[in-house]
Amino acid sequence: DAKTTQPTSMDCAEGRAANLPCNHSTISGNEYVYWYRQIHSQGPQYIIHGLKNNETNEMASLIITEDRKSSTLILPHATLRDTAVYYCIVRVAVRGSTLGRLYFGRGTQLTVWP
Amino acid sequence: DVKVTQSSRYLVKRTGEKVFLECVQDMDHENMFWYRQDPGLGLRLIYFSYDVKMKEKGDIPEGYSVSREKKERFSLILESASTNQTSMYLCASSLGGGVAKNIQYFGAGTRLSVL
Predict the structure, then answer these.
(1) Which of A49, A69, B36, B79 is most buried, by the most CB atoms less than 10 A from its CB?
(2) What whole-number distance in Å separates Cα of residue B45 and Cα of residue B35?
(3) Which residues of A fall within a CB distance of 8 Å from B34?
(4) Alpha helices in chain A (DSSP H)
(5) What is the pLDDT of residues B37-75, one digit of tens each?
(6) Chain A to chain B, count of Cβ pairs less than 8 Å apart?
């Protein structure tokens, strides 16, 4: 049960901003949203996470709506190396443990073209 | 940088063989995970461990076992490999504790083919 919905694929011109949407309408108050990406034949790579405030780091920005039912990952200046599958994940707490499960859905295949 | 190292990138085994997939992390992380990834099915959690000698079943533990004798090493064992275990296997680790510490870092993966 991935608990998130993402488009199957998107594309973007190199140098432009890539905006990847994610719906998580059943998210509960203490669940964080995580974004990972997976470049072909590599392991997933952490990008960013957030709870309710917008977040930015050296890789991307994360915009979470006020009702927290959806979010958008923004790659401000996409490059060819950003071509990957992007996963939006809601962390689920494991009962009796601080260890959070991450459910990876099918993600969004982002293709950046020259 | 966190480094999660999987012992092999590619592995070919025969049906019925016992297979060991090894994973080592160098950041003193408490939690370690084994996933498999198949086309159209995404990543599925096989087993995880939150401490030495501790293990928990994930979503698809059947046909697998794990071992964590040292904090830095987490092994996935296929007791008797079968063709339906042909897959990409991914190991991950996380520090544990608060939410930021639960960021999982992944190895490059082992592509296992069982013939």
Answers:
(1) B36
(2) 4
(3) none
(4) none
(5) 998 888 899 999 988 989 999 989 999 999 999 999 999
(6) 51
